[in-house]
C-alpha cells in the first residue's frame, strides 16, 4: 500500500525559472512542481498544499510558525505517514531547525530545495523532491525529527547548514556529517539522534538581533541593539567563544538590563564554551551571565533564543534551555 505524504510548497528556487528576457531567476506564477503530480503519485499518495510562494530571504519566524501550525492542523485531521516541504535554500536550515524544536511527530518531516531553477540544465529540484518523498515514506525515518534531504544525503535539522552559494552539494553538517544516504535502491540511515526537544510555542512577540564578532570590534553595535529595543542578542564570537575587550562593558550593560546574550562560535566546527579567563574571554563572559550553546550556529541560536524568550520568563529557565 502506498504511503500517504503531505507535500507543502513554500517557494524558493525549486519553484522558480530563469527569465528569457533578463536571465534572472524569478518566481513562477504557477509552481512548476505541481505539473509533476502524476510522477510523484507513483511514489506515494500525495496531498499538495501551497503554504507560501516566497523567495527564502522573505521567510520570517512568523511564516515558520504558520507553517508549523499548518502541519499540526493537517496531521490532526488526516493520517499522513510523512510530510515533505519544498523551501528556498537560503533560509532552509532555519525553518528546519524551527520546526524541529516546535513539532513532535513520529511521522517524518523532510525538507528539500534546489540550487538550480526548474528550466535550467541539470535542474536538481524534481530529483531532490523525489528523494525527499522516498525518505518521508521510509519507516526508518520515523522518530528522527526534521530532516533535510539534498543531493542524495539526509541531514539533521540541528546540524545542517548551507556551505556554498551555488554548489548542488551545498548542504553539509560540519563535524557530524549526514545521518543517512539516498541510493537508487534504498534509504540508508547510519546514525540517529540521541535526543529530541519540543517547545510548544504559540506566538512570537520578541525581537532578537545577531552580530558577527570581528577583530577590533567596538561596543557601539551592542549598544545600538539595546537602544533599538531588542529583547536579546546572539554573538557569533571568536574561536571557542571570545570577544574583543571593547565589547565587554556593552555586554555587561545588556545583562544588567536582564536582556539575554547568547554566544556561539563563528567557526564551523567545535563547541563554544567558557575556557579563556582574559578580558573578553569566554570564562569571563560566562561568569558575567552570557549563555553558551552546544554547537549551534548563529542563525539557529537566534531562533532558539527567540523561542525561549516567548516561553521562559525566568533567567534560570532560560539558562537551562541553553544547556
TrEMBL record:
<dbReference type="Pfam" id="PF17763">
    <property type="entry name" value="Asparaginase_C"/>
</dbReference>
<protein>
    <recommendedName>
        <fullName>asparaginase</fullName>
        <ecNumber>3.5.1.1</ecNumber>
    </recommendedName>
</protein>
<dbReference type="InterPro" id="IPR036152">
    <property type="entry name" value="Asp/glu_Ase-like_sf"/>
</dbReference>
<keyword id="KW-0378">Hydrolase</keyword>
<feature type="active site">
    <location>
        <position position="13"/>
    </location>
</feature>
<comment type="similarity">
    <text>Belongs to the asparaginase 1 family.</text>
</comment>
<dbReference type="Pfam" id="PF00710">
    <property type="entry name" value="Asparaginase"/>
</dbReference>
<dbReference type="InterPro" id="IPR027473">
    <property type="entry name" value="L-asparaginase_C"/>
</dbReference>
<dbReference type="InterPro" id="IPR020827">
    <property type="entry name" value="Asparaginase/glutaminase_AS1"/>
</dbReference>
<dbReference type="InterPro" id="IPR040919">
    <property type="entry name" value="Asparaginase_C"/>
</dbReference>
<feature type="active site">
    <location>
        <position position="89"/>
    </location>
</feature>
<dbReference type="InterPro" id="IPR006034">
    <property type="entry name" value="Asparaginase/glutaminase-like"/>
</dbReference>
<dbReference type="InterPro" id="IPR004550">
    <property type="entry name" value="AsnASE_II"/>
</dbReference>
<dbReference type="InterPro" id="IPR027475">
    <property type="entry name" value="Asparaginase/glutaminase_AS2"/>
</dbReference>
<dbReference type="InterPro" id="IPR027474">
    <property type="entry name" value="L-asparaginase_N"/>
</dbReference>
<dbReference type="InterPro" id="IPR037152">
    <property type="entry name" value="L-asparaginase_N_sf"/>
</dbReference>
<feature type="domain" description="Asparaginase/glutaminase C-terminal">
    <location>
        <begin position="207"/>
        <end position="322"/>
    </location>
</feature>
<feature type="domain" description="L-asparaginase N-terminal">
    <location>
        <begin position="4"/>
        <end position="193"/>
    </location>
</feature>
Amino acid at each position: 500500500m502506498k504511503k500517504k505524504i503531505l507535500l507543502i510548497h513554500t517557494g524558493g528556487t525549486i519553484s522558480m525559472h530563469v527569465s528569457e528576457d533578463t536571465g534572472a531567476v524569478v518566481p513562477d506564477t504557477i509552481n512548476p512542481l505541481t505539473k509533476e503530480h502524476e510522477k510523484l503519485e507513483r511514489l506515494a499518495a500525495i496531498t499538495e498544499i501551497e503554504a507560501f510562494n516566497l523567495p527564502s530571504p522573505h521567510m520570517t519566524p512568523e511564516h515558520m510558525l504558520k507553517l508549523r501550525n499548518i502541519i499540526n492542523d493537517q496531521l490532526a485531521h488526516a493520517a499522513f505517514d510523512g510530510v515533505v516541504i519544498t523551501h528556498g535554500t537560503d533560509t532552509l536550515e532555519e525553518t528546519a531547525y524551527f520546526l524541529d524544536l516546535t513539532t513532535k511527530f513520529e511521522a517524518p518531516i523532510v525538507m528539500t530545495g534546489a540550487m538550480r531553477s526548474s528550466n535550467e540544465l541539470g535542474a536538481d529540484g524534481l530529483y531532490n523532491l523525489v528523494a525527499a518523498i522516498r525518505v518521508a515514506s521510509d519507516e526508518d525515518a520515523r522518530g528522527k525529527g526534521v530532516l533535510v534531504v539534498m543531493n542524495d544525503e539526509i541531514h539533521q535539522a540541528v546540524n545542517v547548514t548551507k556551505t556554498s552559494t551555488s554548489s548542488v552539494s551545498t548542504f553539509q553538517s560540519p563535524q557530524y556529517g549526514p545521518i543517512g544516504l539516498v541510493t537508487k535502491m534504498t534509504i540508508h540511515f547510519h546514525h540517529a539522534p540521541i535526543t529530541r526537544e519540543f517547545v510548544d510555542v504559540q506566538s512570537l512577540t520578541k525581537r532578537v538581533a545577531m552580530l558577527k564578532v570581528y577583530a577590533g570590534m567596538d561596543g557601539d553595535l551592542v549598544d545600538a541593539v539595546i537602544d533599538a529595543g531588542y529583547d536579546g542578542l546572539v554573538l557569533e564570537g571568536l574561536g571557542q567563544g571570545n570577544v574583543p575587550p571593547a565589547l565587554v562593558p556593552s555586554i555587561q550593560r545588556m545583562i544588567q538590563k536582564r536582556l539575554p546574550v547568547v554566544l556561539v562560535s563563528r567557526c564551523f566546527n567545535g563547541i563554544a564554551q567558557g575556557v579563556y579567563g582574559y578580558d573578553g574571554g569566554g570564562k569571563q563572559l560566562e561568569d558575567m551571565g552570557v549563555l553558551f550553546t552546544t554547537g549551534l550556529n548563529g542563525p539557529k541560536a537566534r531562533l532558539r533564543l527567540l523561542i525561549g524568550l516567548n516561553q521562559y520568563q525566568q533567567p534560570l529557565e532560560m539558562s537551562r534551555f541553553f544547556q
